[in-house]
Amino acid sequence: MATFSASAAVGEVLRQPDDLLKLTTYRNKLLKEKAALDNKLQEEIEKLMNTKDESDVFQKITRVSAVHRNFAQTAKMVEQLQSMADKVDYLGRLLDDDRSQGPISDAPHLLPIHFQLQQLESFRNETMAEAKRGNREEREILTRWFEPLDVLIKEFEGWMWELASNVVELARQGYGGTVVRLVKIIEFEGREDEKTVALRLVRKVGNDAARLRGVQGNARPIKNYRHKFLDAIEKNIKGKFADHYDRNELDLLGFIDGLDFMYKDIIRIKDDVEHLFPPDFEAVKWLIHRYHLALDEVLKKVVSSAPEAQVLLELYAWTKEYTRSMKELEVPSEWLQPPLLDGKAGDLLEDYVRLIITKLEEWTVNLQKQETAKFRTRTEEPSRGTDGLFGMDGVVDFFSIVNQQIDLALDSNQGAVLARVVTEAQAEKRPEEVAGGLVEYVMALANDQLRAADFTEALQNRLEPLVSDKYKPTIVDRFNEAIDGYLDVAKQCTGTLVQFVFNDLRPATRQFMQSGWYNDQLMPQIIETMRDYMGDYQSHLNPSIFEIVIEDLLDAFLITYLTALRRAPPNSLRMPGAVQRLRSDISQVFDFFTLYKPPEELEPSFEIMDQVASMLSASPQMVFMDYWNFAKTHGPQLQFVEAIMRARDDLERGETNEVMDTLKRKVRDEGIEDPQEPTIMVSYVEPTPTDKQVKVLGASGAASLMANISAYAGTMASKAKGMRSERDRERF
Length: 732
What we know:
coiled coil, 732 residues, mainly alpha
């Protein structure tokens, strides 16, 4: 390849025949170029050799410089070590002079002390970092040598945090310069911390030159003065509230009255402290927030100490005033988070009411015991009023107690408190929910009644042969009265157990004939609730009582359902969907009750629902046919029939009027009257002078259901008035 290149070069020169004559010229030219290249190459070689010699000299100079630098540093270190004790003593005297003036003072030597301490500390850090290369004994000697400096640094820092904890008071007393000097020190140390962190990060990268320059940075510890400064302020704020609480622990009303000191501090912060701090501190926001947190902490402590009712009331009023005052001071709500008492300051009213009610219950129980004893023994005649009427002192005493508690509630100036006290004073008149354990106790009570009846009957059978004929009727009558009483209580218990079920079902039964009734979820929920209750009842009730509960539950359900139909607004039943839903509901309920009773025993009870469904689905011309079957059993019930006819959305008002006119004529012509025997639609109360009939479904209100059931059951039992028959006893 080289030969080819030379030939090519010759070919370039000798292109023409006469070029041979120029060979001498070309040769001389090339010789000159070669000589120039040789000279230049020789010069470069000489430079290279000179550089090598110089590098050897530089290495020697570098080593000598390092030795000299180390010598100088050692000499300087020795000199500083020798003079350090005097400097530490001098700075200690300056510090003592400042501290002698107290924490609320000008602290004139704060910056000079810090400046010189910072230099001594840097010297110590560098020295100890270098000492790591030495042996343990040398490090221990240096550590002891620097002990006075370490003690002075700790004392100075303690003095700084003591000053920091009194920032607000310093500003109040006109020593804002002290705060500024503190902040300057904090900022300086913060910048030094940042440098130290940066140098450590660079060192981790592995750059040797940077590592050499970072000896001091690596030796200096991170001080976090800013955090310590803020911690000292926060500790002082908490201490103010804690001291105030300790001084007034036995006088919490005085404690609440004395909390106004924080408003003065906040005003001072906004007026005199804010300009002493750099903007990045957000001093006002931070300080007010810390006051808020400390206040919240001490208020929670007060609430947890179970204070008197008056303290709770005063505390509630103070929290309301706090919110208004902070708004007047133009403090943003964002700075006052989380809210006092976790936003549950309103619960103070609940606690206040609870205390009042506790006292009310305590006094009422004692009063009840006293009055019950008086009523049971009746050793004294009842008291007489000015009008000569008999009365019980307990009534007067009870209402006197209630009035006292209402007066306390009035002191709160809170309508909610007064409403709660009045509500609790009559809570037993209208309970909204079943108290825990009441269901179990009612079941136990019902069972106990049968057990007591059995014990009474056994005692009667044992004593009856032992007494003479003269006293036998009296004893038998008394035993029978006792047994009747036990069975009456048991019957009341069954009604109460059913009431528990329908109390839980109330939200669901209120949706009957409403929009939610048309979905498929309502009745399964109702049945599931009844199934849960019946499972418990069946497990814990006497079987005879459980049988009565099932009968009462069935009657209660049918009455509830028919009452809902009776109250359905005009044109609210969407036909034919309403009839389909009704038949589906009844089918599901029928299946449920077959779990506890044979179907043939249930069919007579459910017959009325089939009759009602037939009337609802009949055409206007054929309603009277289905009505006839209904009326033969339950009587005319024209109001009920008219109500369900008007509820149909497929009948116009005129059509409904025509239907009702037809039915009224039918009743009049056929002489249809209420049945002699009570049905679920009609019951008879105790005979009155007018022998007035009571329409079961005509009642209204939340209490009507159990009133209807009781009336119906009472009518059924009217034939057994007096001594119960053996059949009735066996049934129980």
